[in-house]
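=== RUN LOG ===
request id: a7f3
mode: sequence -> structure
chains: 1
length: 127
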Amino acid sequence: MENVLSFRIKKMSLQFVVSDLQRSIEFYTKELNFDLDFLYEDFYAGIIKEGFSIHLKLGKPSADERLSKKNNEDLDVSFSINNIDYLYEEITKRSINVIQPLREMRYGKEFYITDPDGYIIAFIQEN
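=== RESULT ===
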């Protein structure tokens, strides 16, 4: 008998509450080369890269939560990538806030950036 909770996840999207939707769309599309997946009215959007998406919802991000995450290096999202040296070099040429420079770890290389609302995004190239 099949488990009634048996299902397949086809896609997963994080949701970030952002203070300026257009600014966030521009950051992800122009600075990080995501594509705009959809725009719903003037308060909700989805950005996507290679099937991985983030939903952006206009609102008021918690300043206390953002500060706590930054102080504790609590990541909001982590992307496992290839060619991290090239990406890091390109990121540092732009006006992107790098909060953890490229470093070697036992599991590979990583660096962290923040988006305009302070969400912490990690890029990791695993060994």
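=== NOTES ===
The CA atoms of residues 31 and 49 lie 13 Å apart.
The chain is about 25% helix and 40% strand.
=== END ===
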